[in-house]
Fold this sequence. Notes:
alpha/beta, globular, seven-stranded mixed sheet, PyrdxlP-dep_Trfase_major, golgi apparatus
Amino acid sequence: xxxxxxxxxxxxxxxxxxxxxxxxxxxxxxxxxxxxxxxxxxxxxxxxxxxxxxxxxxxxxxxxxxxxxxxxxxxxxxxxxxxxxxxxxxxxxxxxxxxxxxxxxxxxxxxxxxxxxxxxxxxxxxxxxxxxxxxxxxxxxxxxxxxxxxxxxxxxxxxxxxxxxxxxxxxxxxxxxxxxxxxxxxxxxxxxxxxxxxxxxxxxxxxxxxxxxxxxxxxxxxxxxxxxxxxxxxxxxxxxxxxxxxxxxxxxxxxxxxxxxxxxxxxxxxxxxxxxxxxxxxxxxxxxxxxxxxxxxxxxxxxxxxxxxxxxxxxxxxxxxxxxxxxxxxxxxxxxxxxxxxxxxxxxxxxxxxxxxxxxxxxxxxxxxxxxxxxxxxxxxxxxxxxxxxxxxxxxxxxxxxxxxxxxxxxxxxxxxxxxxxxxxxxxxxxxxxxxxxxxxxxxxxxxxxxxxxxxxxxxxxxxxxxxxxxxxxxxxxxxxxxxxxxxxxxxxxxxxxxxxxxxxxxxxxxxxxxxxxxxxxxxxxxxxxxxxxxxxxxxxxxxxxxxxxxxxxxxxxxxxxxxxxxxxxx
Length: 571
């Protein structure tokens, strides 16, 4: 170890060359291909891109492997059967898991390094051929398993990278990551208090706190963590239907009249998908017009409700959006609440993307009226940067979820247990097996406090305003809609010189439609950054920049602008 450190201190480049040569020489001293594996592992960790973190990890792995050889030549080829619960498997288990942790830590450090790629892109068929991903009948050695771990992360997208802006969920929180590791270690199910006592209580405490933040009196109500915003939205639709027609639970859709739901034309596709899954049908979801900023128009909502009633349909559900996926628009919740109250319709707020702004005193006004909703979807795995997945459905009426979904399976939900059965939350969920999603959010909240989340959210919105101000009057850029964005969504076209001055508008739009896909493809091939694009209505492809990554800075925004221009200059 001291020799290696001396080489390192002397000269980084000489270390790479010397270590490689030394490793290849050492490989010849071992039989059975062991030395080749050690050498291959060492080089795999250092190449193709040298970095101190990668070098650290490679050296540690090499030294541990050599120690294993020196200490006991009979334990070189290890299999999963050598790990716990195998007799005397504790030391081997600890060594194996430490190897895995070293791999992950090196990846984490590299993910925050701006000099590294966001993505090492390969086409699917190329990536399939690059490694052996096939499953075999015989077990692989633990060395092979570690190589698979390295390969998996090598080709993974670095979603923690400060220049990764592709999705609404970005970044990597260290406390959240630790909580996720602990959750997997506990490896339990959320359906009863008896098998998940602490996690069930933490879910109870956290959901109550979230309901208080929404504005429901003393946090009364109900809720559950589900596998994403789409499922949370479907839960809301399910509850709305049951609230109006409880007989549907036993007798099905044939027992109820034709139901119709209403949502903005800019809303998430999960509203229609939920209607399809529940047997209501996508044609029973009526899309309400949005204004030029993407906000639902209340007058059109009321007109369509009246129109549906005149046709004999029964309006039962309105889904307003707090932070639309593309424009980041916030529907006028107060006006929508008035209409829902007037017509006695369940009001749901899909705040999967924008709900976290409730944590910010500066920005929560954008959700004024949410306290009047019957239910709300809120995804902490987006703006709060909780590791995926973490989505909550909050419900104002307590007990409704239980009566809607319970099946009272006697092998799980026995009625003569020794504790308060209200903590057996599994029967109010659609799932039986339910992953522990709460601990990541709870532990991060303990670490940051509400003010920590507030500062994180405010910073992201400040960065989006900075981007907007930088490009709104910059040559070659055109905003998709006028005015400062309400959320971190900044939607714009980049017009390369070859498109910028075209006078034929039809030809200009035709060519502009191809610009964003080409620039995005080049971003991925170079691995420098990632940002999404899409069309919207009659608008051709444009970039949709979203900022939820706590690691992003003003310099990263500057880099994005320069990179778009560099990659699109010749188009």
